[in-house]
Known about the structure:
The complex is a heterodimer of chains A (337) and B (246).
Chain A lengths: L1 H38 L4 E7 L3 H16 L2 E7 L1 H9 L7 E4 L3 H8 L7 E7 L2 E5 L6 H8 L5 H5 L6 E2 L7 H16 L5 H5 L12 H9 L5 E5 H6 L4 E3 L2 H4 L6 H4 L3 E3 L5 E3 L4 E5 L7 H12 L1 H9 L3 E9 L6 H4 L4 E2 L1
Parallel strand pairs in A: 1-2, 1-3, 6-7, 12-13
Antiparallel strand pairs in A: 3-11, 4-11, 4-12, 5-7, 5-8, 9-10
Helix pairs in contact in A: 2-14, 3-4, 13-14
Chain B lengths: L1 H15 L4 H8 L2 H34 L5 H13 L2 H12 L4 H5 L8 H25 L3 H9 L4 H12 L1 H17 L2 H6 L6 H16 L1 H22 L2 H4 L3
Amino acid sequence: MFIKITRFYSKTILLSAIFLPIIFFIFFSFSIKELYANNTIDKDVSVMYAGSLVNIFENEIKSVFQNLTGYNFIGEGKGSMQISNMILDGFRKSDVFVSADTTPIERLINHTPSIANWLVKFGSAELVIAYNPQSPFASDLMKASHGEIPWYQVLGKEGFKFGRTDPELDPKGYYTVIAAKLANIYYNDSTIKDKILGEDRNKEQIFPEEILKSILDSGQIDATAAYKHEAIAKDLPYITLPDQINLSEPNYTNFYNKISYKLGTGETISGNSIFFSFTIPNTVENIEGAVSFVKFLLSENGKKVLEQVGLSLIKPILQGDIHQLKPEILSLVPEHN
Amino acid sequence: MLILVIYIIYPFFGFLFVIEPANLIESLKRTEIQDSVILSLTTATISTILVSIFGIPLAFVLARFQFKAKFLIRMIVILPLVLPPLASGTMLLGVFGPYSLLGKIIPVDFTQSVIGVVIAQTYVASPFLILPTQAAFESIPERYEIVARTLGKKKWQVFFSVYLPLARIGILIGLLMAWIRSIGELGATMMMAYNPHTVSIQIFEDNAIGGIRNSVAGIILVIIIALVALTVFVLIRRQQILKLGW
């Protein structure tokens, strides 16, 4: 009898030891969630943005947006394709996604079920070669920036170390490959791309966007492919490329289209003008905050900040399902295709 | 207490659901994965040897000698443990980067090379050897040294014949911890040598490109390495190594 009672109590204690903490944990989690729901979550706007915008968003946009609207800006910068993958995999639920190209958002729109319904192109970007002024090739790079010697000859020199982002993760990465192939056509020299870049995913040249600037500053590479606004924001000297190569000029779309890049997933990216775009994914948790941020980007205040840091703004163009767009955003987007 | 155990083990069960056997076998055949694992195993071993050559004598000095700067040196030794590895890597770039004094004087690629990987791992893993080794030396009663000295042993003989054998368990645990920490190193290595890819960087890149499913092979190999290390750890703890004639 005594042994039975002891066993009963041991079992009860053991089960309690297992389940009570779990019940407590679940209860605690819900309490925390409620607390956040009541107090702070409506104030936070999570924005995932292209890594090349990190300086602009964290140093400029964040403070102006917060001061004007009272929302907390929670930003995360990564390669746009990587952000697209993370949203597709359900690893992130951002309120706004600002991409360095339309393709990463189009993947969300074309996904079944769709994770986004529309995108708005709001800025264009120009590809340049940013370099470290301390590089042993700095004098040649400077001459190239003044047009005194061809830029591709300097970049193709023995011992020159070029850096870029991964074409599988970042639009700038695949646009760099496309631009180098366009240079082959433009200069009528089929060796330029191979001399400068080597293979499309040449491991020696590929670094994460987040550390590329440190890699350049510390002299591990001499130059990198960058957007013009990025080079200006990071205070780096740069070489401008002809419009036929820099992917900034919509008039050359037919020429850009001659080259494409095939992603590992099988998707093909055609050469095109680079457009910065944004969307509010369907997984949005703070729709009011997201709309407020998007309205800020398209407002005169937002435009002023973006232009100051060197981003070339365009008349906003809507792409996708117009009916899914909030009226207050639609009123700021004059064009639709 | 139980919650913490569940919390630690739960991700392993969650991970089981993303494993697709067919994909896994294909992924394991990828040369990048195989190369990255071989590189990590090799560099972690070199780093651990380097840490032990300099770290064991340092741990002994810190444990057995009294001197003015002892407190300061103890603090310095712990620094790599308390610093975020990315910060350590960034600071190492200042010393070994191509524009640094060393980088200019010595015509060797300290960054973006195997040497860079070893430098980063050695820096970050050093406290993991020094701290347990120091504790092991401190736990040995001083009278053993006195007896050995009375029997005519010289100081260096006492170190090799008394201290080292008695502290061997602590040293082995330290070596193992430093080795496994080197395998898992990411932040500092990323700054010093993103290329060639160690297994941690390969997992980071695979994950970025294709999500968790794309990085399964690397993660499984790291888990296998960790399980082997864990087994060795348990063996050391049970002093079975001693029975094997160490």
